[in-house]
Amino acid sequence: MSIIERIKKGHFWKFHGGIHPPEQKFLTNDKPIRTLDLPDELILPLQQHIGQRGELLVKEGDKVLKGQQLTLLSSPMSVPIHAPTSGIIKAIKSSTIAHPSGLSDLCLFITPDNVDKWQERQSCEDFYQKSPQEIINKIANAGIAGMGGAGFPTHIKISSKPSINYLIINAAECEPYITADDLLIREQSTTAIDGIKILDYVLQPEHILIGIEDNKPDAIKALKKATKDIKKITVCVLPTKYPTGGEKQLITALTGLEVPSGQLPINLGIIMQNIATCFAIADAVINDTPLIRRVVTVTGQALAKPQNVWALLGTPVNYLLEQCGYQATKDKNLIMGGPMMGFNLANDQVPIIKTTNCILAPSKQEVSSENNEVDCIRCGQCADVCPSQLLPQELQWSAKAKDHVQLQKLNLFDCIDCGACAYVCPSQIPLVQYYRIAKAEIRQQQMLDVQAEKAKIRFEARKKRLEQEKIAREAKHKKAAEARKASMNKKNEGGSSATSAVAAALARVKAKKASAQAAKNNENSITEQPTQDIDTKSKVAGAISRAKAKKMALNKEAKENNTVVEAKVVNTAKSNKTDKDKDKDNDNDNDKKARIAAAVAKAKQKSAQRASSIEQKPEIQSVVEENTSSRDENKKAKISAAVAKAKEKAKAKKLATAEIKDSQTSADSEINRQEKKKIAIAKAIAKAKAKAKKQQKEETK
Questions:
Q1: What's the fold here for domain 3-8+26-124+132-360?
Q2: Mean pLDDT of the region 557-565
Q3: CA 203 vs CA 230, 248, 306: distances in Å
Q4: pLDDT digits (tens, 9 = 90+) for 464-481
Q5: Is pLDDT larger for residue 535 or for residue 307?
Q6: For residues 400, 406, 407 and 411, what is the CA-based torsion angle, rounded to 10 degrees?
Q7: Where are the domains of the chain?
Q8: Which residues are bridge partners to 293 per DSSP?
Q9: Is residue 536 scored above 60 in pLDDT?
Q10: CA R_g for the chain
Q11: How much is the average pLDDT of 65-77?
Q12: Omega of the bond prior to 387 within 30 degrees of 0, cis?
């Protein structure tokens, strides 16, 4: 049987592994989608998809209208964002984004004005009037990316046009708790089918298959009713099994084909789109409404009113939780996405983005926040349930060891992060978390390798360019030199060449330099005699200044010596007034005499040296007489006057020296007189002592 015949008979293929976790969809599948009031603030990350973010078109303080484009479609893998409502750009700064890493990225902060005013729109009732390329451009400018979780730019996926065998619409929504697509199909089936028709017009596939699980009876009825007149579309009701909604698993279940590792479904002639993406495509092409809102399931037993809501992109999670009756506790355990493939939020200020389909606020009984991981017991259950037929146990070991080469050999990137392995693990090992971290590390390393390779290519290209420029420059210089040489050797009409003219010019320059040097020598000879006179004058002046300095020094020393001698004489006189009746005083007097005698001798020696230096001063006169021999009579008179003055000063110093000698002589005479007096006193004392002893002896007898 053909694939379509098998599907119509309800015969589907089975993919490897899979599990049946509790669905918990009853919390929200019986309530209509609720429209919320505007929040006080919207936070729009610039990047909400796989690829590159666009360039900003607005700045802080700008007023924006609802639906206005805020970033530019600057590259094929970029997707613009739009204003969810009218208001003012309050800030452009980094903020925590919806990502497992919990890191920050650049975001726009919009304060709504509560007017909700739209920008001008142009609806299109008949999209068949537009070309497929115009529709693709419209989808790109509307900022539509895959809304099933991956976030791949839709316009890139539908731009490739090989022969498309199957267009598969994913409406399985297999993860527990989530009912966003279920309610969207029930309430907006007509618009969703319009989106499928637009894709059919652009891609021209042979068959269109809508895959949906059998646990959504109301949605199945709505789809069959909306497609009953379209023979090309087949609604495929699959048995409930997780993860049927995975891209490769749904392809295998519907067609029996398996996408090879490292390849895309387009290689098999298959393109898949989510049912919510189809709704957004129809809204953009027909109603000119960019992607500014989506259906989000807000569920969990920690909420008083769990339900599906129409949430504007950028709405903070805490606002949605408040609208659904969430009572905050100390241990907040909030999950974006379902319990199997979702991730914990860093805080409740994280905004809703294009790929957000669920906010789960479970109670402690539903999801335990404790980490009870123990060592692997090698039971093999993880490998049994893996839908990608991988070896989760070995992947975990290699991820912990950071063995990236082995991880790639084990086809790590075939893992769809479904969480089935972690669900059945009896050791409670969070296997998916290890895989996510390892994937991020490998992608980061690959990015660095690509950057390094690009830098290497640029460096080699630059090096080659510089070498070529150097060769070209050398060749140019060589050619110019040859041209100059040829022009120099070329003879003119008179029979001479430029070379001879240059030689003649050089000879003239040399002759001119020689004449200039001779003139300079003559000038030096003329100015030589005045220079000699100046040198002689400077020598004489220096000799006179030195003589003056020596005289001043001698006068100062003479005064100091006189002061020293006077002080010594005074000290000597005082020493004579001590007690004459004690022998100890005599000894002190003798020491003082010796010191005085030594000081006097030293003073005499210094005086003799000064006298000799003074007597030698006439050498100044000889220097002056030698230097003034070549002077005129006026100069001689001045020098003689200076010499005479110097002689007078020398005489004055001699007189001072004589006075010093006289003072020394008087001091010596005074010392001699004191010594004679002391001797006489000593004799008298000795005589008195002898007489006293003699009297004592006589009295004893």
A1: Rossmann fold (3.40.50)
A2: 56
A3: 16, 20, 39
A4: 999 999 999 999 999 998
A5: 307
A6: -150
A7: 3-8+26-124+132-360, 371-480, 528-700
A8: 312
A9: no
A10: 57
A11: 90
A12: no
Separation CA 401–CA 214 (nearest Å): 42
Please give the Cα distance from 193 to 169 (Å, whole number).
10
* Closest to 166 measured CA to CA, from 285, 253, 262: 253
Per the structure block, which two tokens stand in for 159? 């731009």
- Whether 43 contacts 91, CB under 8 Å: no
Given a contact cutoff of 8 angstroms between Cβ atoms, the answer to whether 143 and 49 are in contact is: no
Gap between the terminal Cα atoms of the chain: 175
Closest CA to 198 of 118, 147, 132, 246: 132
**Contact between 355 and 145 (Cβ < 8 Å):** yes
Does residue 387 contact residue 420 with C-beta atoms inside 8 Å?
yes
CA nearest neighbour of 178 among 310, 35, 48, 340:
340
Q: Is the pLDDT of residue 545 over 80?
A: no
Does 520 have pLDDT greater than 60?
yes
- 388: number of Cβ within 10 Å: 21
- Strand 233-238 and strand 55-56: pairing? unpaired
Could you give the residue ranges of the DSSP H alpha helices within 159-258? 180-203, 217-226, 247-255
Strands 42-45 and 233-238: unpaired
Place of tokens 């010191």: 595
Q: What is the pLDDT of residues 283-338, one digit of tens each?
A: 999 999 999 999 999 999 999 999 999 999 999 999 999 999 998 777 778 999 99
CB 78 within 8 A of CB 53: yes
Which pTM does this prediction carry? 0.67
Phi and psi angles of residue 77, each rounded to the nearest 5 degrees, phi first: -95, 10
| DSSP character string of 257-269 | --PPTT--GGGGT
DSSP assignment string, 54-77: PEE---TT-EE-BT-B-EE--STT
CB 281 within 8 A of CB 199: yes
Contact by Cβ (8 Å): 372, 428: yes
CB 50 within 8 A of CB 150: yes
Location of structure tokens 């209208």: 65
Of 350, 336, 293, residue with least CA distance to 175: 336
Answer left, alpha or beta for residue 149, where phi above 0 means left and psi between -120 and 50 means alpha.
left
State phi, psi for 448 to the nearest 5 degrees: -65, -40
What are residue 696's phi and psi, to 5 degrees? -65, -40
pLDDT confidence bin for 576, thresholds 50/70/90 = very low
Give tens-digit pLDDT for 193-213.
999 999 999 999 999 999 999
Residue 356 has pLDDT above 90, yes or no: yes
Neighbours of 154 (CB within 10 A): 28
Round to whole Å and give the CA distance between 539 and 352: 99
pLDDT, residue 271, reads 94
Bridge partners of 296? 309
Amino acid at 328: A
CB 543, CB 623: distance < 8 Å: yes
Span 371-480: which CATH code?
A: 1.10.1060
Residues forming beta bridges with residue 95, ordered by sequence position: 105
| CA distance linking residue 82 with residue 44, whole number of Å | 9
